[in-house]
User: Fold these one by one.
Assistant:
Number 1:
Amino acid sequence: MPEGQYGNFIDNLRLFTRGGSGGMGYPRLGGEGGKGGDVWVVAHKKMTLKQLKDKYPQKRFVAGEGANSRVNALKGSKGKDCEIPVPVGISVTDENGKIIGELNKEKDRILVAEGGLGGKFFTNFLPLKGQKRIIHLDLKLIADVGLVGFPNAGKSSLLSQISHAKPAIADYAFTTLKPELGKIMYKDFKQILVADLPGLIEGAHVNKGMGHKFLKHIERTTQLLFVVDVSGFQLSSRTQYRTAFETIILLTKELELYNEELQAKPALLAVNKMDLPDAQNKFHQLMNQLQNPKDFLHLFEKNMIPERIMEFEHIIPISAITGEGIDELKNCIRKSLNQENDAYHKKQLLNLQISNTSHREPLFQNALASSRMDTI
């Protein structure tokens, strides 16, 4: 796996680790050598993978050797452990891609390379070497809400509106260079962490563009917030124009092709740029399409239709420029998180069972739960 670096942001590293060798035994007196030190990966809140790489450019981590058995210390002491400091949110895999473990909170620790045994009777008093292991550190953001959308949907502007964050913003098809984090602050001091994930493009699942690099970050968010431009989306003059409804279908397909379990996450939909001319008519058209998705799926090529259409708990028309709908969106995010936090794992299992039994059956029972159509 190549190391992922975008500017100053690194999201994965490959490291060499080796446990310490054991110490020599003392055959004449039956003395046992000390065990070699172990290599641990330990989570620290104020650590980044870039800091780790800068501090240890060789990316080699070797634990200390166990002490030899001596006349005045027949049982040799254990070798010094080696600790690799990593950020919270790290997934550790071996060279074959097998997951060794995850570090989801500060001070979580994983043993990655064990020290060798010291020399003793059954080893003929000869020490054993420590375990050698190549490991991959893969950073996945942990956030309450992940913003999902194609470039220029207005996600960066929205993040600025709802949270304390100052992401880079541009008025052209602009893909965020790295995930931006913001906090929604409520009057009663409740805080919700929001991650703006870089804009996907069609074909992200086959590793086109940077979208695929960051699709993995969506896995660690509790809830998804789709952000679409009410007027639709066109990446450039050479690419096809997509309506807001088509955008939602294609975003859903990208998530499904990357990892279909993502569709089991609770999702909200923010329909952005309601300040633009004719936005109201386009929003009503979108709501009709979401209410009756089967009637419009013939517009798509068969391989572009997801197995399950996303089920949105709330659909909120907003304008990140004027602030329209922002307060309602913040309230809906909080309400949805409160409802989902306890029931999330149960619902995930249930949704996966439903998806297995109802192939290609769009699920939109609750799509209009808080659509505000009655107020538009």
Number 2:
Amino acid sequence: MASRRALHFVFKVGNRFQTARFFRDILGMKVLRHEEFEEGCKAACNGPYDGKWSKTMVGFGPEDDHFVAELTYNYGIGDYKLGNDFMGITIASSQAVSNARKLEWPLNEVTEGIFETEAPGGYKFYLENHSLPQSDPVFKVTLAVSDLQKSLNYWSNLLGMKIYEHDEKKQRALLGYADNQCKLELQGIKGTVDHAAAFGRIAFSCPQKELPDLEDLMKREKQQILTPLVSLDTPGKATVQVVILADPDGHEICFVGDEAFRELSKMDPEGSKLLDDAMAADKSDEWFATRNKPKASG
């Protein structure tokens, strides 16, 4: 499975101004591209909404070799109820710690050299006050699971992830597709995993020819397929094929054809300006948040 890559995690955001400030000014990420859409995504990329929305990709570098964040903004939705499903993203960056201190962004030192902070909307981030030897500072995404062994079987045996660490006592496991990629950490919790309204989605790429086989495997194993293999169009850009899965706890997983996605995900030098222009045209996210919410599709 060495040909598979960890790509991004999808966050629903209610305030683009504060969110952009956090990812750009605190974490130090760059806007890689920004796109506006008039209607909801047929693979529910923006959640169960059929109104106008935008997608902003941010990261420390291009998605070819960095794990990035996808910020989806539904016009008119000012906030999303959080569940217990997403437990945080860990980033090794002394610069991010320095930025947060300089800009007086709240930090809580949870253990020596590791600081907990929150992005707008309440999403947790853990900042390690050092740098990683690899080029991408994003170290891991932590998701809650209700049955660690069942989840390990799914992510390792079915999706082909390598298990890097497994601590049964702490109910924790670290998995990934390659040593130099962002890892997935599974953390066992008591009770059920609640996705609430802010449920995210983690994305990976694989050779396009593997997508039908992956879908067939999930059918044979009687696993949940949220969106069967479908082609997604982005105006003026590459068309990509995706299949959306759900693990035993309902975490959404997107697998996308790598070849077309590399073309689609190329950095747009105008990305930051496009985001700023969209926010200016929006007048203010707070104003739009008082408007009627778009009708949910389904």
